[in-house]
């Protein structure tokens, strides 16, 4: 354990708020919260525990909203390779959270095999259309973990639009097929007047070029050099026709290249705005309110390092907890921050799985039980038993 500050032995009575992010490759944020809760309830069964897993607009965004009390709505949609999958969106009143990865994520690829040229965001469009049918007037679209590099063309198709070749036939799925795009038929799109769409995520680059969606596909979605060129050519053709049809030039806007270009379709056809993912989602989930009166806030993610400082969810949680006057500690798979860096984040101590298990492979495989072991040290250092409250007339 590395500490930036010493824990006080005189914390007020209150709950423990568990607001972790995911441990990538091991546990979802909700699973991290459940393991922490199980360990703390064994160590200190008298302390109330509130589970509030968090996300920054990427993978786990819909699940985080559901864990916060939103209604889960399951929808049968098209996965990134055309196979049907059951995806979930979250609904609270007239606000819906739709997550790209739920329908069109890498984890939906059969056998995890990349399909850079043919993977589609079609299912995400189906989720969006379903949210509109349910009466959503505000839709939060989380972009992260997507398998497709189709510029959101599949999303438009999934919502009811048609992409046609020179013979008037529907294009097959995927970004490479966009090179043959000849015309758009948007008459089947739902009426989005009065619907506000917010993309929750940090601004990615533009749609095209060396820092665009196709280039990112080479790095993250298994595309080779020639495949990247084919994808970029398809996305350029898509941008030309999409902007002409919508009269919303968006290819060079920040966020257009997000998630294989799905950000471009959101900006162009949904009139979306882009909000910084972490503060927007933490506000949506009500983290600040649930941190008020907390005896301790526990956050964390799989690797807490300098990359975390660039606006990831645990840093946002720590700052929200500090504003609420609650101490905050973090759990992580491995630690990569110095004491001085911790002080700047407002995290007061970090507990790493590698503190109790040197084998990093086992840390990945057994992250849940190891997190429960970490709670023993957290409880001992931050949740010491408080003296009983004095009754009326009791003399000290």
Write the SSE topology:
Blueprint: E1 2-3, E2 16-18, H1 29-43, E3 49-51, H2 61-67, E4 71-78, E5 84-92, E6 95-99, H3 100-104, H4 122-133, E7 138-142, H5 153-158, E8 162-164, E9 183-185, E10 196-200, H6 213-220, H7 225-246, H8 258-269, E11 273-275, H9 277-285, H10 287-291, E12 296-304, H11 313-323, E13 328-335, H12 339-345, E14 349-352, H13 360-365, H14 367-382
Parallel strand pairs: 2-3, 2-12, 6-7, 7-10, 10-11, 12-13, 13-14
Antiparallel strand pairs: 1-14, 4-5, 5-6, 8-9
Helix pairs in contact: 1-14, 6-7, 6-8, 7-8
Any descriptors?
14 strands, 18% strand, single chain, 2 domains, Glycerate kinase, domain 2, alpha/beta, Rossmann fold, six-stranded mixed beta sheet, 396 residues, 14 helices
Q: What can be said about this structure in brief?
A:
Its EC number is 2.7.1.31. The protein is of the alpha/beta class and 396 residues long.
């Amino acid at each position: 354990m590395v500490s930036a500050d010493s824990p006080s032995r005189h914390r007020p009575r209150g709950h423990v708020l568990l607001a972790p992010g995911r441990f990538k490759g091991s546990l979802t944020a909700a699973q991290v919260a459940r393991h922490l809760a199980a360990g703390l309830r064994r160590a200190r069964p008298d302390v109330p525990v509130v589970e509030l897993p968090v996300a920054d607009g990427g993978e786990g965004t819909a699940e985080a909203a559901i864990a916060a009390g939103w209604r889960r709505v399951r929808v049968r949609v098209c996965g990134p390779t055309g196979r049907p999958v059951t995806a979930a969106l979250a609904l609270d009143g007239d606000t819906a959270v739709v997550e790209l990865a739920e329908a069109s994520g890498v984890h939906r690829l059969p056998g995890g095999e990349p399909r850079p040229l043919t993977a589609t965001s079609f299912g995400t469009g189906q989720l969006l259309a379903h949210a509109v049918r349910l009466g959503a007037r505000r839709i939060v679209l989380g972009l992260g973990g997507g398998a497709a590099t189709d510029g959101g063309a599949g999303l438009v198709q999934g919502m009811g639009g048609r992409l046609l070749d020179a013979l008037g036939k529907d294009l097959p799925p995927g970004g490479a097929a966009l090179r043959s795009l000849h015309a758009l038929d948007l008459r089947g799109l739902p009426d989005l007047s009065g619907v506000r769409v917010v993309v929750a995520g940090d601004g990615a680059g533009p749609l095209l070029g060396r820092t665009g969606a196709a280039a990112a596909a080479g790095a993250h979605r298994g595309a080779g050099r020639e495949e990247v060129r084919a994808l970029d050519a398809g996305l350029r053709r898509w941008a030309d026709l999409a902007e002409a049809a919508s009269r919303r030039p968006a290819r060079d806007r920040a966020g257009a290249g997000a998630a294989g270009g799905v950000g471009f379709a959101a900006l162009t056809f949904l009139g979306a705005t882009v909000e910084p993912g972490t503060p927007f989602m933490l506000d949506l989930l009500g983290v600040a309110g649930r941190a008020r009166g907390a005896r301790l806030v526990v956050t964390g993610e799989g690797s807490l390092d300098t990359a975390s400082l660039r606006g990831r969810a645990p840093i946002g949680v720590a700052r929200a907890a500090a504003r609420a006057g609650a101490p905050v500690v973090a759990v992580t798979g491995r630690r990569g921050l110095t004491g001085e860096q911790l002080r700047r984040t407002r995290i007061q101590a970090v507990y790493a799985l590698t503190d109790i298990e040197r084998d990093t492979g086992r840390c990945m495989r057994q992250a849940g039980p190891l997190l429960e072991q970490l709670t023993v040290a957290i409880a001992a250092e931050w949740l010491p038993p408080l003296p009983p409250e004095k009754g009326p007339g009791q003399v000290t």
